[in-house]
Fold this sequence. Notes:
Elements: E1 3-8, E2 11-13, E3 18-20, E4 22-26, E5 29-34, E6 39-44, E7 49-52, E8 54-56, H1 75-84, E9 87-90, E10 93-95, H2 102-113, E11 120-121, E12 124-126, H3 132-143, E13 148-152, H4 161-173, E14 177-181, H5 185-197, H6 206-209, H7 212-229, E15 233-235, H8 241-252, E16 257-261, H9 263-267, H10 292-303, E17 309-310, H11 346-355, H12 362-376, E18 394-404, E19 421-431, E20 434-438, E21 441-442
Parallel strand pairs: 1-6, 2-7, 8-9, 9-11, 10-12, 12-13, 13-14, 14-15, 15-16, 16-17
Antiparallel strand pairs: 1-4, 2-3, 4-5, 7-18, 18-19, 19-20, 20-21
Helix pairs in contact: 4-7, 7-8, 8-10
This protein binds N-(aminocarbonyl)-beta-alanine and zinc ion (2 copies).
Amino acid sequence: xxxxxxxxxxxxxxxxxxxxxxxxxxxxxxxxxxxxxxxxxxxxxxxxxxxxxxxxxxxxxxxxxxxxxxxxxxxxxxxxxxxxxxxxxxxxxxxxxxxxxxxxxxxxxxxxxxxxxxxxxxxxxxxxxxxxxxxxxxxxxxxxxxxxxxxxxxxxxxxxxxxxxxxxxxxxxxxxxxxxxxxxxxxxxxxxxxxxxxxxxxxxxxxxxxxxxxxxxxxxxxxxxxxxxxxxxxxxxxxxxxxxxxxxxxxxxxxxxxxxxxxxxxxxxxxxxxxxxxxxxxxxxxxxxxxxxxxxxxxxxxxxxxxxxxxxxxxxxxxxxxxxxxxxxxxxxxxxxxxxxxxxxxxxxxxxxxxxxxxxxxxxxxxxxxxxxxxxxxxxxxxxxxxxxxxxxxxxxxxxxxxxxxxxxxxxxxxxxxxxxxxxxxxxxxxxxxxxxxxxxxxxxxxxxxxxxxxxxxxxxxxxxxxxxxxxxxxxxxxxxx
Length: 482
Ligand code: URP
Ligand code: ZN
Ligand code: ZN
């Protein structure tokens, strides 16, 4: 067969196997895995690793935060930064505003993304205003290929438990996945008020204002709600040993519960919030950074399979009055924008500290960074694998390249992971067979990335949690769920 492009001589890794082969690409898809393949264009990948392109499924792009602050990145800069970090696809959020219809929310984000992204994209729909009409409209969203929703248990955008149950139930009926930011809002407010009433206003007090218990309580509650609805739930940015333990236990029981953690909880600590002056503001994110003991426990939960994905939670705000200090430089920690950049650092950090240091296998790295996301968010087997027929979404890594990264390609003005030595780097990224970045250069143009219509969440291997009270066989015949 005549190929448009051949990747020769590389070592391929999927989420389960590592082997040497050439890849033949035609019309944007992988059509041949073999030896001595020929193509019109050839990439020599000798000495390199050829992996499915990363899929970033937790990032905030061209989105107003819960405090109404617009992210520094739009779909152009955000997707470029993602691509330089080894990603060929990303799924940012489309956030519903109070009073806004779901259709209108998606239209707004379509306009923000359409002509800008250099890699393929979709959105998770953030639901903040949940009423009868919105719940009625929700099934229609699946027809557009949006099959994941995010809800908050804190911030002004939070929903109550009853609304949460309604969303879980509709998502489950249509094969969708609900994601949750789990922190107990009243515990946070109570702690923050006690701190500020006593004059503790500096950025570093962001950490004690959001105790681990607040996350643990909310995660346990969210899991209970998911069990009651017998619906799939992704707990995003788990930052505590207790939270991870709850995810682990629920998964052991067979519940449709999944967990995500992020590099900031593995590589940074609350001590970073105590940097001089206002520097600590760069490290304000929620849940907050914890400590080095937590880091080790979270790594164990990565190695042993508690977490299905490691995502960046890229929430980019500049270290100035357009971002972090939108409410001024004199305001207390509560008014500083929450979140930090890192979409470009996620995969290099995880490769360097995970694969190179022997904490996870190369195949597990592929699973955590691409394959599991593709399965859970309805893109498998088109994306997340190097199988024949899949999109040629590929990242070629030089496992021996060492970098000390400072500047990234996003629109912020700092890198929270600056100065770290990183071993291994993605040198070429392809999206549907076209080069997005190659040897440090951007090749793709804004608009080359296309919207991905997604399918159902893959629940393989989990039995769910049918409760006595919701099972018609043991509930006097009452049918509560379709
Ligand atoms: O602090 C963070 N993580 N900001 C982004 C929004 C969120 O909660 O994920
Ligand atoms: Zn969140
Ligand atoms: Zn987030």
